[in-house]
Amino acid sequence: MSEGKKSEKALAPGNVWCRITKMGHDQVFTGVTAQPAGRGEAAGADAFPRHAFGEIVQLPLVVAQAQEDNGNLEIQD
Questions:
Q1: Per-residue burial over 8-46, b = 16 or more CB atoms within 10 Å of its CB, e = otherwise
Q2: pTM for the complete prediction?
Q3: Is the pLDDT of residue 66 over 70?
C-alpha cells in the first residue's frame, strides 16, 4: 500500500481507517503476520510488521481509539 493512501482492499466490518502519526512510527502493528511461523520455527523479526509514519491501515474501532488516545494514529473519516 502506498504511503498515505487507503488500500483497494475493502474495509472490514467494525474496522476504521487510520493514519499512523510520527509518534506511532514503528509502534503500531495490526497483529497480522507477514509469514506465519510453522511448527518448530521461531517467529522472525518481521513476523509482526510494524507500520511507518503516514501509512494508512485498518484496525478495529476500539483498538484504534486506544491508539489514537496514545497519539500513535489518527482515525480517518
A1: eeeeeeebbbbbbbeebeeebebeeeeeeeeeeeeeeee
A2: 0.70
A3: yes
Q: For 3, phi and psi rounded to 5 degrees?
A: -65, 130
Q: Is the pLDDT higher at 32 or at 21?
A: 21
Element (H, E) at 18: strand 15-20
If you search the block for the grid coordinates 474495509, which residue do you land on? 11
Residue 2's pLDDT is 43
What is the spatial distance between Cα 54 and Cα 22, in angstroms, rounded to a whole number?
8
pLDDT mean over 61-66: 94
CB-based burial of residue 68 (10 Å sphere; 0-12 exposed, 13-18 middle, 19+ buried)? Answer: middle
Residues with Cβ within 8 Å of 44's Cβ and at least 6 positions away in sequence, in order, are 35, 37
